[in-house]
Design goal:
This protein is α/β, with parallel strands linked by helices. It contains 5 helices and 5 strands. The radius of gyration is 13 Å and the shape is globular.
Length: about 130
C-alpha cells in the first residue's frame, strides 16, 4: 500500500510540505499548475489526496481545481491550505464538501503532516500495481 499526496502550491513553501509528508510516510511531490495536477489525477490512480492553495498558477483557483479533481475522482481527499481561506469560501463554486479540511497559512509543518495521517491512514492507502 502507498499513500501519495500531491502538493499544488505556487510558493517555495511547497518543498517543506513535501518533506513533511515524506517524513510522515507518504509519497509526495509538488506541482504549481492546476492543469498539470489534474492530468496526474486523471492518469494516476495512486494519488490519494491533494493539498491545494486558493491562489494558483494556470488560470484556476483552488476551489475550481478541487471541483474538477473531485469530478474526476469523487473520493479524492482535497485539503485547502491557504492564507485566503475566507476568499475561497466566497468563491461562487465553493461547496463545504469540496475539502476534507480548510487550513490557514502559516501552519506548523508537523501539524500539517499529522492532519494528513488522520485523513489518509496507512490502511486506507491506495494499492499501486
Amino acid at each position: 500500500m502507498t499513500r501519495n499526496i500531491l502538493v499544488l502550491e505556487n510558493e517555495a513553501f511547497a518543498r517543506h510540505l513535501v518533506r513533511a509528508l515524506k517524513n510522515a510516510g507518504f509519497q509526495s511531490g509538488a506541482l504549481v499548475r492546476a492543469n498539470d495536477a489534474l492530468e496526474v489525477i486523471r492518469y494516476n490512480s495512486g494519488v490519494a489526496g491533494v493539498s491545494v492553495d486558493f491562489n494558483l498558477f494556470g488560470g484556476m483557483t483552488g476551489v475550481e481545481f478541487a471541483a474538477a479533481a473531485r469530478a474526476l475522482r469523487p473520493n479524492l481527499v482535497c485539503v485547502l491550505l491557504s492564507a485566503n481561506v475566507e476568499g475561497a469560501r466566497k468563491h461562487p463554486q465553493y461547496r463545504p464538501d469540496l475539502f476534507a479540511r480548510e487550513l490557514e497559512k502559516p501552519i506548523n509543518i508537523d501539524t500539517y503532516a499529522r492532519i494528513w495521517q488522520e485523513l489518509v491512514p496507512e490502511e486506507q492507502g491506495t494499492m499501486v500495481e
